[in-house]
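Minimal example, chain plus N-(5'-phosphopyridoxyl)-D-alanine.
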Amino acid sequence: EKVYINGRIVPHHEAKISIFDRGFLFGDGVYEVMVQIGETFFYGKEHLDRLVGCLKKIKLDFDVSTLPKEIERLLTASKLNAKDCLVYIQVTRGVAVRKHSFPKTGKPTIIMYATPFTLPDINQKSIATITTEDNRWHRCDIKATSLLGNVMANDQAAEQGMYESIFIRDGRVTEASHCNVFFVKNSIVYTHPADTYILDGITRQIIIQLCKDLKIAFREEPILEENLTTMDEAFLSGTTTQIASIGRIDDHLFDPDGSIGPITRKLQQAFLELKR
Ligand code: PDD
């Protein structure tokens, strides 16, 4: 497998990163995950714009203008031109003597890889999730590589044979370890507002637009933990997850008969029809 590192494309075992890289020592970096479906990146511009926004938020000076060309080079080297694939991009603050404040000199480290990707089947059965305390920091709007809170939460779900952990902060549902979370109650779609407690997912933004287009009532309001079991439908969204119906949260079953709720279904279908 070929990877991209600071302008070079090399077999992955030849790519070397210093142990003094701040991405490695501090998790001082940001990343993106996007998918190419057929010949085009699915909302690629939005993903790159979010990367620019996150770089700005962490005061990391990196020029993304050459990225689209560099991604093309990577895809060619990976023999993934015009194929369904996932591209991972990570920019860190680079190599410096270990000191918490930002180094005055030095340049960012950029790595990328592309890997074949199969879109999940929307007819997959509803997925099982657990709730867990959202003990992450208060800047979840930054797509930071420091993901310890997320991986620990997700592993808690995996240990119980579940797919996702849904975070609860101060009695409110924020998001999940690598997805956004939506609920439906009385035909109104709810999701947490895009403040600093969640990552404003590109898939989330697409769903909000679809609600407008399809005239589905929509509110950016957090759902209270105590009201979770009174919801009619629940679903997850994310680049790799797309729109996935939640069948279970802890011991509560949303779809005892295994069917996907009508509004989740409608959004999944509209999502599939988007130009890809
Ligand atoms: N995860 N919330 C969190 C915490 C995420 O990590 C992600 C994405 C999302 C959904 O964002 P989007 O719709 O833009 O993919 C929400 C990526 C895919 C990952 O870490 O693999």
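Helices lie at 22-26, 44-57, 67-77, 148-159, 202-213, 262-272. The CA atoms of residues 60 and 93 lie 7 Å apart.
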